[in-house]
């Protein structure tokens, strides 16, 4: 299905003159707080590698490099950005560090998707903004027995990573396209260099394209001042231009509008059907106590929705004197769900007292915003009080407390569930998962529980209807968890430790190991006091919510 989707998308992109994609994102998630998890394919290196291969073949029209029919892929973020320091993200200085506490973790978990893409001749890579830590927080990482990098600079500046590792050891043969802002914003470790010196360092390291910049005068000055060898600039220009020649954009940059229209006619309806099928297959059934699902269609259903507060929206709304949340969006969500249930033959009622079944749609929202990082990302549901940090600047605590609202009115879940259970009714829940969540405020009160991944406005209608397809039995669930749900706050607890004379915040499990494999790195004394004895969440029926888990009928 991934290959088919990529092929169809490629045809429609090419017809519209869209020849390059700044993606896909093949980082393997390893810290549950990391804000970029929603853009990944989860935490399993093998699954992400398979998807990477299918995407390369589909978008580039084969696996023998670029051709006239190809869309250029910029696979990212090499060598994997997920081992973030306790979930902070590197677009701003507060999240500039990647922490590898585990010997061999880069090679075992984070490089495999890139290696698979390289093996199938992916056209481009984008290095990550973050930089490795080489102090006592981390251990050196190796690839095939050799150390990968020792310089504390963002990856686009690292010759060890771009040239020595990606090109010379892993066989990458495309061009390197940096993310935007590396010469002006994400300048970690190169703050003391001038802009021409930064350009020179990045290009000589192996970066061919400096993303987002329109100041060639800095490159000219770098060459004129002897900072940038002309041979390195020629290499960068050659690598980038080669993709244009291979895709025939130099030979004929023009499109035929009739052919473009026909490509849409030929592919659009099929793409819509496949998109809906993908949403159905993405539904994960994680709990089905006493085989409640599929739910008999004669039931009366009351729909109640719960949602978190987008931190950026909340701050803008409060600044303008408005309250939290968006009533129109909540009403639209309930309307779509009501129509979906009624279409199946259920009777949707207004109050829980009238219902046989209470349906809870729960949409928690993390405070992990890329450009507004004021606290460590929270994965507990509710109104959570936590330490404020120097916004975007550093992880230093300000001494103030802030309240993060990942889910409004969470206490009502138990109240509603207890009331309907007391009358002999049942509770079915759906939890939106864009990152791992602690489910202790939801799962114990549900007789059945499904997982929803999609939150995109263009696909949300499909996602909601697909949930009801599974609940009703019109589609038998096949989905599996892409992420491991976290069992208890203790398994991600932060403690302060002095390392190399500096007080650091260290997470109970290492940030560089995916959730499914964390147990071996957690103090057994911690696991002994956690339900199920694991990092993975254990539900009331004894199921462990590790990546790869999913029930069927």
Describe, in plain words, how this protein is organized in 3D.
This protein has helices at residues 2-15, 45-59, 105-110, 112-119, 159-169, 195-205, 216-224, 230-246, 257-282, 311-319, 327-344, 411-422, 460-472, 524-528, and strands spanning 20-21, 72-78, 97-98, 124-127, 131-132, 142-143, 146-147, 175-176, 284-288, 300-307, 347-349, 357-363, 383-390, 394-405, 426-432, 448-452, 494-499, 502-507. With 553 residues, it is α/β, with parallel strands linked by helices. Strands 9-16-15-12-10-11 form a six-stranded mixed β-sheet. Helix 9 (257-282) packs parallel to helix 13 (460-472) and helix 11 packs parallel to helix 13.
Give the arrangement of secondary structure elements.
Blueprint: H1 2-15, E1 20-21, H2 45-59, E2 72-78, E3 97-98, H3 105-110, H4 112-119, E4 124-127, E5 131-132, E6 142-143, E7 146-147, H5 159-169, E8 175-176, H6 195-205, H7 216-224, H8 230-246, H9 257-282, E9 284-288, E10 300-307, H10 311-319, H11 327-344, E11 347-349, E12 357-363, E13 383-390, E14 394-405, H12 411-422, E15 426-432, E16 448-452, H13 460-472, E17 494-499, E18 502-507, H14 524-528
Helix pairs in contact: 1-2, 1-9, 2-4, 6-7, 9-13, 11-13
């Amino acid at each position: 299905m991934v290959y088919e989707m990529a092929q169809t998308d490629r045809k429609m992109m090419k017809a519209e003159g869209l020849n390059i994609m700044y993606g896909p994102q093949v980082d393997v998630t390893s810290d549950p707080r990391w804000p970029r998890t929603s853009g990944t394919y989860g935490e399993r290196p093998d699954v992400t590698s398979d998807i990477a291969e299918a995407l390369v073949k589909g978008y580039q029209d084969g696996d023998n490099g670029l051709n006239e029919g190809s869309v250029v892929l910029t696979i990212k973020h090499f060598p994997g950005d997920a081992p973030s320091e306790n979930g902070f993200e590197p677009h701003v200085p507060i999240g500039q560090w990647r922490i590898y506490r585990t010997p061999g973790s880069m090679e075992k978990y984070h490089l495999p998707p890139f290696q698979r893409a390289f093996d199938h001749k992916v056209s481009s890579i984008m290095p990550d903004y973050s930089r490795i830590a080489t102090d006592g927080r981390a251990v050196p990482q190796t690839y095939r027995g050799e150390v990968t990098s020792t310089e504390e600079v963002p990856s686009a500046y690292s010759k060890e990573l771009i040239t020595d590792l990606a090109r010379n050891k892993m066989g990458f043969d495309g061009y390197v396209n940096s993310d935007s802002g590396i010469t002006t914003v994400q300048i970690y470790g190169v703050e003391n260099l001038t802009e021409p010196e930064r350009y020179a360092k990045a290009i000589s390291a192996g970066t061919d394209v400096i993303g987002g910049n329109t100041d060639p005068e800095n490159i000219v000055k770098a060459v004129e001042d002897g900072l940038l060898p002309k041979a390195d600039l020629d290499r960068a220009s050659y690598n980038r231009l080669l993709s244009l020649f291979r895709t025939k954009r130099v030979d004929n940059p023009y499109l035929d509008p009739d052919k473009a229209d026909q490509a849409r006619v030929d592919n659009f309806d099929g793409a819509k059907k496949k998109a809906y099928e993908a949403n159905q297959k993405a539904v994960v059934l994680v709990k089905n106590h006493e085989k409640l699902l599929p739910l008999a269609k004669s039931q009366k259903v009351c729909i109640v929705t719960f949602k978190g507060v987008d931190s950026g929206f909340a701050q803008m709304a409060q600044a303008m004197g408005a309250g939290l949340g968006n009533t129109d969006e909540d009403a639209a969500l309930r309307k779509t769900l009501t129509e979906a249930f009624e279409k199946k033959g259920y009777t949707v009622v207004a109050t829980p007292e009238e219902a046989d079944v209470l349906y809870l749609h729960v949409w928690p929202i993390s405070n992990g915003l890329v450009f507004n990082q004021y606290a460590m990302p929270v994965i507990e549901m509710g109104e959570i009080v936590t330490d404020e940090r120097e916004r975007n600047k550093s992880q230093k605590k300000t001494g103030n407390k802030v309240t993060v609202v990942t889910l409004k009115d969470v206490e009502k879940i138990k109240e509603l569930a207890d009331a309907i259970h007391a009358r002999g009714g049942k509770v079915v829940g759906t939890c939106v998962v864009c990152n791992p969540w602690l489910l202790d405020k939801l799962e114990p009160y549900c007789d059945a529980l499904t997982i929803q991944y999609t939150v995109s406005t263009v696909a949300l209608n499909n996602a909601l209807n697909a949930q009801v397809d599974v609940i009703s039995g019109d589609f038998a669930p096949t989905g599996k968890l892409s992420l491991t749900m976290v069992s208890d706050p203790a398994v991600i607890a932060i403690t302060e430790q002095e390392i190399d004379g500096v007080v650091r915040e260290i997470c109970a499990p290492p940030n560089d190991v995916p959730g499914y494999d964390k147990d071996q790195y957690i103090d057994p004394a911690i696991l002994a006091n956690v339900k199920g004895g694991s990092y993975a969440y254990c539900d009331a029926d004894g199921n462990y919510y590790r990546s790869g888990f999913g029930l069927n009928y």
